[in-house]
Backbone:
């Protein structure tokens, strides 16, 4: 277990001798001057030490380097870096997936509690003492997590970290309130429940949501400016409208100045158009000019301006964010590099040190992959990694390594007859004729479904009928899937998203058949997914492939935006429930002018009685699920004023504030979503235009591929080295490689490392030239990347919100 | 009248000797190889000729050069260039403002006729024979214009010019129909009236509308692709919806597959949400998932995708258009240059030739300005203009020249006392304190108006009350305007858009007072404009100034987009009137499920009878003005299905096609408008970011300024030269300059040429680097710029639509 050589680390970390020194260091950068590449040995490093202690200090260095690299990856600021061995223990405790999952589950549990708290969803109602106890339990868990954080960060850093401080305060309030509820055995007006999402946002796994929120806050200042312009015109037009139309007694929209403002606010969302115009229009036809001018200015000009301003800010922020992340990673790599070099050779990292690092950074990685990663980094072929090589660290760590197959097909090793059969199938499924035949089948299926559906009479439960055509088409799809899997090999087949889609749709269709056969009522919805097969038609045209591919690339980001929206929904839902639960019911709002929509009456026709319903009493805040649906309706904006006026007529006219605020908040989020989609697509198109690369090449070959050749002598040498270091155990992957090398009877084997391409890779290529400038500026000014970020954005809000990361 | 020297033009144009030759030339480029800068004397040019003939041929050359430059400016293709003296006469006849105005008026008259044709606007109704005769008259005028064009273009070119051919066909049809109407003395189903806007679009003054239309057509292919995706998902969801909800008898939205498709189409526009969901939702709460998923995919994803794709295309098209225009202008300049150089000195244009050109190109320009323009171009100081100098031709022709004032203020020449007073006023109005005091006054005024309006009771005719505060505030504004005008001088004052705005609002307010004093009923609306004063508050913040400045810059383009929209409206209005005139009336649509909106009943309350109205019968196609209002309502999209269902219930369900087509067309135009606003703003912001220039500097100094110094000897020399050429008449401007020079007792005078900055100037700066590449490519490949344009766009549609220019 001892090292073969006696290299001494250039820097010793978390050493008892130095820890006293480090504690005093308060400037947040780290404990040594690293960015300048000047190696200043810390006090105590010069002490001669025994082999064992040396080995231990290397292990410590590996661990700290791994932590730096992780911080670089997660965009954690370095001032939260653990400073001593005690902090390290807390850090390690708080930084593993078990802890993260616990954090997430606690936060989700807290949020889900609102399903069971009064006003609860009927079938999930829990007694007060049950849900209050659950809440206390969850809060205790959160408190425990915070304590761990306190231990790791130290008190000084802890109170400097704004997000954590906010969390602590919210936790405190929630604690008191939960105890009050337990004591009183009844819920009071708990609007603070709206703050619960903070616990979720703070989770490690919700980094994307945090980034979205920050982006929203950064876009706010210009947004608010334009919003003021919008509201200003609204008020001016409200005064004009009041002057012009209040004389008309039939016009209820402009009776008072307040009515006038509310009407024009709703008109801004177009929800009451043309009704709001009609009384005035019926009296004087020229009054339509007022409304046309108002809508042209507000809706068609300023609203678009809003989008333009947000889009522009968004654009700039995206680039600056990328720059900041890039420089932060670079800085992390530099920190790590300094910890891995030895005093004897201060400008290179040897395989042994790299391997030590990777054992901490990626504990799941096999010895073979660690070695291959080293080889991929080390493109100059020297025995040591230079800092320049090491800069590519993040590009290669995610690679999945596989030996390059000598043959083309998965069935190459099969006997001759089988090979020929599979080869034939392979040629068939790859042929254009086969593809177009399948398109034809799908198109026929589509027309068939349309015609068949059209022939059905209303009221017939379509789901219970199994037409023969359905079985025929399904058989064809099944055969196609089998042919493709056997012809391409399961690996190749499932590596394409489109094939996965085909497969799952076909499997669902089969499940549907089984459902029909066994008449399992609750799963009938599967049957209804039949027409989804038609989606395959969109593979034909290049543009659709691009759009759908980009859609898949955008999906993670879209999901996080959706989650962000849900967090806003949650807070508004809680507030809505606290104030408006059970205020609307059938026939409730007879005093308002939207009474019709809430009416529920029995109308007697010639042939019997019929229930005539306005249904809008269903859009209520009676429990959290109803609230979510109501808020979605408010987001869609159409007819939202009916819900608003209904609630207002049952409460006070201050309720309108809630609805208007919600409209403006969703407007912000929606504008950001639009800007995001715009930005992503335009970026993608510019990228492919710049690199003369067809958007989304037809099959595979996307993603990043590294190639590394390993010779037999090298492999044996490495195996030897590893044996020396760890003994025989846990080296099976390396041994396998050596065996494969011997078997292949070649002097070397080529390994391929693959990973899918991320937005960051695209950005790297897009900003190629600028990146060099950034690097130069970075090494020249020696600023912390986060500071550069703020300077570039140049807005005080940006720095305020950014520090909450 | 004879030249002092005997320079011979390098090329002789429209000469009788050469005209025979030119007629055979069919390749459309022109009649000589010019782009290569190789001067190939045409046959006949070598003939020795007398002075007089020489002078005449110079005049001809000037004229053709001016025509080339005009073609470059207007983006007319060179294949429509007049080829011989006869074509020239027709060309000159058809290319002056009188002719253009006639063209425009004829087109407008034709379009306005629809006000008086049945179904006519009541107070504008004309007898059939009157409006048919008017129409015939207008059509004869159009025919006459076309004849002139035929003479100028020649038959071959005429039938190659697609737009003209389309116009001819439409003219022919309209002619026959107008005669039929006259003979039958009644109107038949004249849907072809919808084609009338073609005459307007073809007008010289409507070039911007043509460009918009072309841009719309160019954005269509990607738009249609995404639209298909949208419709595809709609059909899939319609099938699903039909399967899921048709069993519910209370649900009228999904009864048949057609109902289902229509409901989801309307849902796409959100106009029937949440009503369409309610029956299903009231039966099963989980059915809301169907609608949420549908809206998320269609409305929030694909619709934004549509915008992204259009925006991207738009972006590319804008740049390519700029490139094409730039190269076309360059090519025009090269053509003109070749016509202006003499055989003796083939690489320079002398002042005499330049002056000759300008007399044709800008007949209104004074001799002094022509001379100053020459000086501005001639920056090297040589006696001749090189081709490089001449390339800047379009940048300097629009300049307005003025002698640079020696002093700073307009009151410099006044006596001492007056000077001091005005100087004091000047200092006052330029002080920050004065500005902020005025902002304070405006803000107070705003609050005052709000409070006062709020205190008024409904029904009080606010317009007839003149509060004292109004008079006080108005006095303050009046004094401010007077102070500013006297302090800054009228010229400086009115050169700022903001001051103009202040001035006009104040003047309007005074007019309002007068209106009140004399109780002139019809002008009461002026009084109502009071709150517009508040708009001045937005000068405080830089961002608002930027936004409003950009708004003013965008205004011409926005207006042309508006006009484009109106043209679409016109066509749809005609079709709507032909099919749906008088189909809806109060209480008409009792069979449909929107009957409520068309109902008009007397409801008896405790205290009397009240008319309860649905008002939607007002949204009809009974005449063209009502149709426009109805179409605007359809554009705003909210509740549009009520109009659609009303009309459908009175006609056939094919009527829906009209409304859906209209929705899609306006969606295209609106998306283009959004893309345009986005593009313009982002471009503007990028521009100011790139050039480190604050967006919209506070006062003046915008626009392009050229400076030229004229010495006394130069001036006298020029005067001498001009006298030689034209005699004394029409040289007053030059003489004035000489007098001014003598009076100023300085050896030289500096003149400033100013013009406002156009989008083209901004683009020049934005694409600086690329422009050089374009030029190089242009001179290398020697392609016609229009061809380059098509090649870059690479879409067949683009070239098809572009050639209609």
Residues:
């Amino acid at each position: 277990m001892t090292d073969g050589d006696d290299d001494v680390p250039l820097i010793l970390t978390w050493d008892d001798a130095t820890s006293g020194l480090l504690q005093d260091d308060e400037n947040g950068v780290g404990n040594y001057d690293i960015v300048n590449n000047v190696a200043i040995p810390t006090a105590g490093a010069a002490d001669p030490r025994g082999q064992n202690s040396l080995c231990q200090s290397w292990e410590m260095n590996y661990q700290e380097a791994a932590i730096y690299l992780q911080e670089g990856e997660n965009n954690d600021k370095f001032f939260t870096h653990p400073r001593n061995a005690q902090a390290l223990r807390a850090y390690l405790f708080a930084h593993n997936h078990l802890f993260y999952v616990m954090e997430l589950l606690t936060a989700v549990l807290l949020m889900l509690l609102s399903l069971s708290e009064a006003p609860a969803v009927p079938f999930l109602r829990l007694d007060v003492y049950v849900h209050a106890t659950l809440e206390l339990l969850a809060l205790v868990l959160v408190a425990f997590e915070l304590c761990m954080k306190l231990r790791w960060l130290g008190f000084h850093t802890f109170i400097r970290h704004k997000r954590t401080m906010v969390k602590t305060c919210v936790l405190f309030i929630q604690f008191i309130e939960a105890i009050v509820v337990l004591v009183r055995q009844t819920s009071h007006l708990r609007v603070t429940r709206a703050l619960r999402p903070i616990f979720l946002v703070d989770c490690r796994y919700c980094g994307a949501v945090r980034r979205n929120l920050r982006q929203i806050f950064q876009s706010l200042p210009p947004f608010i400016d334009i919003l003021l312009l919008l509201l200003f015109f609204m008020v001016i037009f409200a005064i004009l409208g009041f002057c012009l139309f209040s004389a008309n007694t039939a016009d209820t929209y402009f009776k008072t100045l307040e009515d006038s403002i509310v009407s024009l606010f709703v008109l801004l969302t177009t929800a009451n158009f043309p009704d709001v115009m009609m009384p005035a229009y019926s009296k004087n036809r020229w009054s339509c000019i007022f409304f046309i001018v108002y809508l042209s200015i507000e809706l068609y000009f300023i609203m678009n301006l809003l989008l333009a301003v947000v889009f522009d800010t968004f654009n700039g922020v995206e680039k600056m964010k990328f720059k900041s992340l890039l420089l932060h990673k670079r800085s992390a790599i530099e920190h790590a590099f300094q910890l891995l070099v030895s005093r004897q050779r201060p400008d290179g990292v040897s395989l042994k040190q790299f391997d030590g690092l990777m054992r901490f950074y990626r504990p799941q990685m096999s010895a073979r992959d660690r070695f291959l990663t080293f080889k991929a980094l080390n493109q100059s072929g020297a025995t040591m990694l230079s800092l320049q090589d090491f800069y590519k660290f993040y590009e290669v760590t995610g690679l999945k390594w596989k030996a390059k197959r000598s043959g083309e097909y998965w069935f190459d090793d099969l006997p001759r007859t089988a090979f020929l059969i599979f080869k034939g199938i392979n040629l068939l499924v790859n042929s254009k004729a086969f593809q177009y035949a399948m398109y034809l089948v799908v198109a026929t299926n589509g027309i068939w479904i349309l015609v068949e559906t059209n022939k059905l009479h209303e009221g017939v439960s379509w789901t219970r009928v199994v037409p023969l055509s359905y079985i025929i088409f399904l058989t064809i799809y099944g055969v196609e899937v089998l042919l493709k899997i056997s012809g391409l090999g399961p690996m190749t087949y499932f590596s394409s998203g489109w094939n996965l889609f085909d497969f799952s749709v076909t499997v669902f269709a089969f499940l549907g058949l089984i459902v029909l056969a066994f008449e399992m009522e609750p799963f009938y919805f599967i049957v209804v997914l039949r027409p989804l097969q038609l989606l395959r038609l969109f593979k034909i045209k290049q543009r659709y492939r691009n759009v759908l591919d980009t859609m898949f690339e955008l999906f993670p980001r879209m999901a996080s935006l959706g989650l962000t929206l849900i967090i806003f929904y949650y807070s508004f839902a809680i507030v809505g429930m606290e104030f408006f639960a059970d205020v609307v019911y059938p026939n409730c709002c007879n005093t308002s002018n939207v009474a019709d929509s809430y009416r529920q009456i029995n109308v007697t026709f010639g042939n019997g009685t019929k229930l005539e319903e306005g249904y809008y009493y269903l859009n209520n805040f009676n429990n959290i699920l109803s609230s979510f649906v109501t808020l979605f309706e408010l987001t869609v904006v159409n007819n939202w004023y009916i819900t608003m006026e209904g609630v207002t007529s049952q409460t006070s006219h201050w309720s309108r504030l809630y609805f208007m605020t919600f409209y403006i908040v969703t407007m912000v989020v929606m504008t950001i979503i639009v800007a995001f989609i715009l930005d992503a697509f335009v970026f993608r198109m510019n990228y492919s235009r710049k690199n003369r690369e067809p958007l989304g090449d037809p099959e595979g070959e996307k993603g990043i591929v590294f190639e590394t050749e390993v010779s037999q002598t090298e492999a044996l040498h490495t195996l030897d080295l590893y044996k020396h270091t760890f003994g025989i155990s846990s080296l099976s992957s390396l041994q396998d490689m050596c065996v494969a090398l011997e078997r292949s009877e070649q002097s070397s084997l080529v390994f391929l490392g693959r990973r899918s391409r991320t937005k960051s890779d695209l950005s790297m290529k897009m900003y190629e030239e600028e990146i060099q400038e950034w690097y130069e500026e970075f090494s020249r000014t020696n600023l912390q990347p986060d500071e550069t970020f703020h300077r570039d954005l140049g807005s005080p809000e940006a720095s305020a919100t950014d520090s909450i990361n």
